């Protein structure tokens, strides 16, 4: 028997680095972001910086409270009905619709009519109609998925015993 005590040292904190492919992709994304940042800031760095700060303030001070209140109202309504799971069928199409509106807002609102016509030779007057149609299709598809889900859950529980 040996009198030596072996002490096991707990391993130190390990960095969650991931696989080599993940690291390579992360480094490539950083390199691409740096390139885009340098190119973007080369022409009008003050305007870009003001736009980013303004967008962050608009989001944090105006938009976040608005859509948080809308989500709370949706959850309260769904909770009153007894089906909080239904909220997802409203959240997903609303999120996609708002994302499309955010990305295409200048064109949807008609603020870029001249620039759009000069660049493409087309009119931008259909963007609002198209966005509304896409939004209706998103909510329609969500309603269809909800109906299928409800029908499946009813058929899996079997006929009601009376």
From TrEMBL:
The chain crosses the membrane at residues 21-42, 48-67, 88-108, 128-151. The keyword Transmembrane helix applies. Keywords: Membrane, Transmembrane, Transmembrane helix. This is Uncharacterized protein. It comes from Streptomyces tardus. The lineage of its organism: Bacteria, Bacillati, Actinomycetota, Actinomycetes, Kitasatosporales.
């Amino acid at each position: 028997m040996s009198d030596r005590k072996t002490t096991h040292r707990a391993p130190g904190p390990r960095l969650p680095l991931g696989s080599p492919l993940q690291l390579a992709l992360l480094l490539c994304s950083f390199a691409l972001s740096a390139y885009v940042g340098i190119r973007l800031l080369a022409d009008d760095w003050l305007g870009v910086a003001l736009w980013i700060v303004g967008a962050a303030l608009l989001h944090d001070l105006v938009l976040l409270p608005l859509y948080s209140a809308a989500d709370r109202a949706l959850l309260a309504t769904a909770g009153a009905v007894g089906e909080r799971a239904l909220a997802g069928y409203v959240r997903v199409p609303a999120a996609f619709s708002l994302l499309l509106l955010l990305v295409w807002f200048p064109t949807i609102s008609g603020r870029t009519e001249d620039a759009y016509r000069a660049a493409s030779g087309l009119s931008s007057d259909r963007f609002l109609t198209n966005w509304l149609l896409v939004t209706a299709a998103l909510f329609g598809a969500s309603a269809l998925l909800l109906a299928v889900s409800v029908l499946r859950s009813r058929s899996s529980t079997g006929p009601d015993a009376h």
